[in-house]
Amino acid sequence: MGIEVGRIIELWPEIQTAFFQTLVMIGISLSAALILGLPLGILLFVTDKGLFWENKAFNSVIGFIINIVRSIPYIILLVALIPLTLAITNTTIGPIAASVSLSVAAIPFFARLVETSLRETDKGVIEAAIAVGATPWMIIIDVLLPEAKASIIQGITLTIISLIAYSAMAGVVGGGGIGDLAIRFGYYRYDNTIMVVTVVILIILVQLIQQLGDYTAKAIDKR
Predict the structure, then answer these.
(1) Per residue, what are the HEC states of 77-126?
(2) Is there a contact between 139 and 126 (Cβ–Cβ < 8 Å)?
(3) Where is the chain membrane-spanning (predicted)?
C-alpha cells in the first residue's frame, strides 16, 4: 500500500492535469450541446404533427440526421471526424481537438432528450396558451420551457455523464484527460494503481454530478 500511495503522489501532477483536461472537454462539448442541442430539440418538438409549427419535411430530415449521428459508435465518430477536427483546431490531439467530436456527439443526444422532455408537457396547457392568443415564441419561452425545465435538467445531467464516458474513450487516440492517463500509465505500463485511481475519479465525478442534477431537478420542479 505504501508503494501504491507513493506512486499516486509521484503522478499527482499528471492526475491533476488529466482531470482538468477532462473538465475542459466536458465544458466545451456541453456548451455546444446547450447552445445548439436545446433549440434543435425544441424545433423537433414544435414541428411535429399537431403542433403550431408543424412541418413534416423539416422534422423528418432533422430527425433522420440526428438518428444517423446517434447511431454511430463514439470511437468510430471520433476517427471519422479527424479531418473536421484538424480543420477547426489545426491538430488532432489534446482536449480541445477531442472536444470537436464530443460536441458532435453531444448535440443530437441532448436534442433528443429535450424533445422527450417537451413531450411530457400537458397538451392542454399548450392549447390554452394558443386560445388566449399567445405567439409561438411566447408558448416556447413561457409555457414549454418552464413546464419541462426539471426534465431538461435531468437531460443535462445525463448528457454530462455520457460525455464523461466519451471523454475517457477520447484518451485512446490522444485526446487527453483521465482516459489518456489510464491508457498511457494504466494500460501501456501495466500500472494497476493508476488504472484504479482513474476509475475511482470517474466514479466519484459521475456520482457527484448525478446527485447535483437530481437535487436541482427536484428543487425546481413545482408540479
Answers:
(1) HHHHCHHHHHHHHCCCCCHHHHHHHHHHHHHHHHHHHHHHHHHCCCHHHH
(2) yes
(3) 20-46, 58-86, 92-113, 125-145, 151-178, 190-209
In CATH, 2-220 is 3.20.130.10: no
Question: Which tens digits make up the pLDDT trace of 205-215?
Answer: 999 999 999 99
Q: Between the CA of residue 53 and those of 89, 131, 168, 179, what are the distances in Å?
A: 37, 16, 39, 43
CA distances from 21 to 99, 168, 175 (A): 10, 11, 9
Give me the residue spans of the domains in the chain: 2-220
Grid cell at residue 127: 392549447
Distance from C-alpha of 180 to C-alpha of 185, rounded to nearest angstrom: 8
Residue 191: is its pLDDT beyond 80? no
- Cα angle 102, 209, 99 (rounded to 5 degrees) comes to 15
CA dihedral 23, 103, 178, 153 (to 10 degrees): 50
**pTM across the whole model:** 0.90
Q: What is the CA radius of gyration of the chain?
A: 21
